[in-house]
Structure formats: C-alpha cells, structure tokens
C-alpha cells in the first residue's frame, strides 16, 4: 500500500465482463480490464485466443454480446464521438497504397476533424522522421517506414488510450526500437496502452501489467514484478498453456 | 449534420484521388462499355433488325453493366491494409462512410455515362433531337438508385470469395426495374414522343431512388455494426 | 433427431398426404377445363408453388429485419431455411409453368408477368444462397445476408410492378380479385385445397430444415 494520499487516477479504459459470441460459439468470455494513465498492459495468448477480438471491442469496431467498455468514464457506444479518445495501431496499416504518406495522414486528420489537417499531418510526419518521404506514394516506402506512417495516422488525434496489435511483426530491429520508444513516450504523456504482441522481449521495457488470454478468457492477469524478466514471464506463460 | 457531410466529402475526395492515381476502375469500365457497344453492333443482323430497334436496350445494358465494373473497385481499395477499419475507427458516423463512398461511386458512374453516351450516339447513329434532357434525367434518376444499392452490395461482396462475380449476381436483379423503365423512356423519346409520356416512368425512377437510398442509409450502418 | 425435427417431418408427411388427396380431388372429382383440357390440372401444382415461393421470400425478409434488430442467430438460421425451402418451391413453379405453357399457350417459355416475376424470385434466392456460401464468419454471414434479404423484400414490389406494366398473357388473378372469383366452384375448391396442402407442406419442410440446420450448427460449435 502506498500511504500517500494520492488522488487515485480514474481509469482511462475500463472493460467489464466482456463477452463476444455468435450462438454457442464463443470468441471471448468474461474479460475485464482496467487501464489507467502510465500503464501498459501486455496481452499474450496463442493464436485464436481472442486477442484481436478483444482489441476490436475496446476500439469500438465491434460490439460486445454482453459486458461494457467505458472510456474516460463514459460508455463506448455507437455514438461516433466516443471513439475520439481511442487510437488503434493494428498490424494492418489502414493506409492507402496509392496515396502519399502525407495524403494518408491528412485524410485521417480530416476524418478526426482536426482544425488544420494539412499542418497537423506535416508536423506528425516530421516528428516521426518522415518529412523527406512524405510526398512519396506509400507503395514505394519500406515496411518499416510504412509502419511509422501507420503510427502517425493512428495516434494523430492524441488519443488517451492506445490499442496496439502486433506492432513489431515484420520490422527491422531499428524500426521496432523506434516503436517501443514511441509507446514509452506516449505513456509518459499520460496515456494508457493495451499491447497485444508475441514479441514479449521487444515490448518488455514498457510493460507494467501482464495478461494471458486463452480460449477467450483471461487465465492470468497481474502487475509485472519490478525485477521480473521477460524470460521469467515467458516461462510462466508456457507453463500456463501446458496446464 | 455539417460533420456528417464534411466527413462524407473527405472520404469521397479521397476515393477520387486514389482512383485518379491508378485509374483501374474507370479505364476498365469505360473500355468495357466501348467493347460492348462494338460487339452489339456486330452481333446484330443489319438486314433483319434496324439499329433503332435495339438502341435503347443497348445503351442501358452497356451503361449499367459498365457501372457495375466501376462499383466493384469501390470497397476493394478499402480492403487492402484493412483501410475500412480505419474509416470505422474514426469519430464519424457509419452513415457518413456510406455517403462518402456513395458520392465517389456516383462520380465514377457519371464519368462512365459521359463516355458511354457519346460513343453510343457515334456507333448507333442516333439523333436525340429534343429528347436529350429526358434521357439525361432518366440516366441521373436511374443512377442515383442503383448506385446506392451497388455501394451497399459492394461493401458486402468485397468480403466474399469471388467478389467480382458476386456483385453482378446480387445486383443485376436490382437493375431490372430501373433499366426497364429507362429503356421505356428512351424508346419513346427516340421516336419523338412528347415528354408528357415519360413523366410516369420518371416518377417511378424517383420512387425507386427514395426507397433504396433511404434503405441504404439505414442498413449500411447495421452492415458495419459487428 | 430432436423433437422439432420429428414434428417437422410429421407435418411434412401430413402435407404430402394432403397433397395426394388434393390430386385425387383434382383429377377425379374436378371437371376438365373446356378450353385447356387436361394440362389445366398442372394449375393445381403451379399456383400454390408460386404462392409458397413468395411466402418463403417474405419470411426471409421478415426474419432478416428481426435478425438485425435482435441479433439472435436463430433468426438467421430461420431466414436461411426459408430461403432453401423457397428455392425449392420456385423451382417447382418454374418447371410446371413451361409444362403447362407448351400445350396451352403453344410455347415453353413466355415473358409473361407472373412467370417472369417468379423467375426473379428464383434469382434472388440463388443470389442469397450464393452469398451465404461465400462468407466464412458466421456473424458476418448473418449480417450480410440479412441486409440482402431486406433489400430483396423491398425489390419485390418494384419487380412486380414492372412486369405488370407490360402486357401479360397470363390468366388474370383468379381468387383475390375485386369481383367474385371467376373459377367454377369445383375448380376453386380444388385450388383452395391445394393451397392449403402446399402451405402445410411448406411449414413442415421449413421446420425440418430449420431443426436439422440448428442441430448441425450446435454439433459443429460443440466439436
């Protein structure tokens, strides 16, 4: 217990007893998750465990069959405006190959109703070191650069909750490092992160909480130990899968 | 409301810009239209059948089938990199997404029309005389309705195997009423009948538009509601 | 086999027996139509089949509306079953039509309004089935086909209107027309009996199809 009378930060994202099913086919059952500022929740699990489904529910792309998602204390509903405080970086880039990096990001800025879309897009691309390739068609950029454009697009509206799905897949070490540095910076800025990744080692430096999702249910959900190593967690994960 | 149209316009402009880069849909649709017109001309026995007897049907079949080719592309470009998810994540309503795609598709189909119509006049040697405004009115009214249905169906078929085949299979029955009416209108106008005779058909086309544009606006959000 | 499937089969059996009785009635106890002769007897299969096809189509549409509202997978299954049954009936209608048309009208196929109309129902059923088989994810399949079902339901009046705006060869509506029914009493009796028998048969087939599809889905989900 910390004795200090800190005002307890209310959670940014609170998922309660999320269920997702079609008939008697379950994709997710009884998943609860609470994310506060400065937290990064790592979700691991075998293929088909429901990780992507979970992120889609948290992002408002899919509706839960039961349970609820609260964003900044308000229900994430069909109401479009409630999606403003969440950003999803998927392993799919959400970008158009025929447009330039700048056009892609500017289009997103318009969708999010930012006041000066062109300026916002330029600034974003610059911070991510993409100023020089901004006017190149996306299909000419390398995988790592495309991923950075995807980051620019996903977090351009400064969401409070970042949902990140397998961000390291297919990246060279340099780009992967950039992504984890970026996640760290966003967290320090007061965001909360939910991260789905196979790449526990790559993500470990920013992780504060760990969850294991198996068969649509969380079988383990806890804080990361202060001196815990990625290898130790992976061993625990493997033994959970065997048991 | 202003938000809705702002977002819809942004999406439509984006679509037009993407198409401007690749021109896949438009070039194939327009070439298709030209080819079909040529084939129709050769597939007709000139001794047995005067051009004018076949002309109205040729115009509408060519135009609508070519339009379907353009529609096929509409959601294909949202499929690569799961760009559609990007649209649905944004704080804009699903109706705005529909409207944006609908507006862009209307633009493409009108381009197809703008090419088909002169080619038709050229190859079939028809004079519209005073009938052109009526034919254009029929074209606009027919397009508004079937492109709405086509936009919704393209969003469906893009998620299926054999998307390019599935869209015509589902959409052609929906083309039947507007195409039939448009052919009626064209036949009358080409044979110099007074405009008064076509008003009833135009009204039917307008009714079709009201019903199916409304239905599309209502159902598209449910379609996207996972 | 579950109770529902058994009940469905029982009703189907009743429907088939009733149908047999209708044919005895139509062949032995109903006068031969003077102008058309024996081929007119096909009429007692043809008209009720068309009725059942249209009824199934409406059921697909209604189940689709309810599915999008309530999101109950059973409604999706019901719509699918109704479409399958409707496809069968529209095939019966489309085969008996030409069989009748050849001797009576002198041609296998004519673009008569009602024949054309049912042909369009058939195309809509085929499209609906093709779509269902082309979508993998069950939730997506249910949503997509429900949307198609509702569009189809609204298309039906337009197709109907369109085919009727053209001259029709078809005998004019017989039972539900403003003046008194124009069919002689005995023929009307046979037609109404046939409509009844067909509707029972359709209900039986629909129940059976639904029950079997439900069991199959449950088995697959469990396994």
Write structural notes for this entry:
Chain A has 243 residues and is an alpha/beta fold. Helices cover 31% and strands 25% of the residues of chain A. Chain A has 2 domains: 13-85 and 159-241, P-loop containing nucleotide triphosphate hydrolases (Rossmann fold), CATH 3.40.50.300; 96-158. A 6-stranded mixed beta sheet of chain A has the order 6-7-8-3-9-10, with helices on both faces. In chain A, 45% of the residues are buried. With 223 residues, chain C is an all-alpha fold. Chain C has one domain (3-222). Chain C contains 6 helices and no strands. The radius of gyration of chain C is 19 Å and the shape is globular. The chains are: A alpha/beta (243), B mainly alpha (226), C mainly alpha (223). Chains in contact: A-B, A-C, B-C. Chains A and B meet through strand 6 and helix 2 of A and helix 1 and helix 4 of B.
List keywords for this structure.
heterotrimer; B: 226 residues; C: mainly alpha; globular
Write a brief structural summary.
The complex is a heterotrimer of chains A (243), B (226) and C (223). Chain B has 226 residues and is an all-alpha fold.
Please specify the SSE layout and strand pairing.
The complex is a heterotrimer of chains A (243), B (226) and C (223).
Chain A: E1 13-22, E2 25-35, E3 40-44, H1 51-59, E4 66-71, E5 74-75, E6 86-89, H2 101-111, H3 117-127, H4 143-154, E7 161-165, H5 173-188, E8 192-196, H6 200-203, E9 209-214, E10 217-223, H7 230-242
Parallel strand pairs in A: 3-8, 3-9, 6-7, 7-8
Antiparallel strand pairs in A: 1-2, 1-4, 4-5, 9-10
Helix pairs in contact in A: 2-3, 2-4
Chain B: H1 2-22, H2 24-42, H3 51-79, H4 83-89, H5 94-124, H6 132-157, H7 163-190, H8 199-224
Chain C: H1 3-28, H2 43-70, H3 73-105, H4 113-134, H5 138-164, H6 185-222
Helix pairs in contact in C: 1-6, 2-3, 2-4, 2-5, 2-6, 3-4, 3-5, 3-6, 4-5
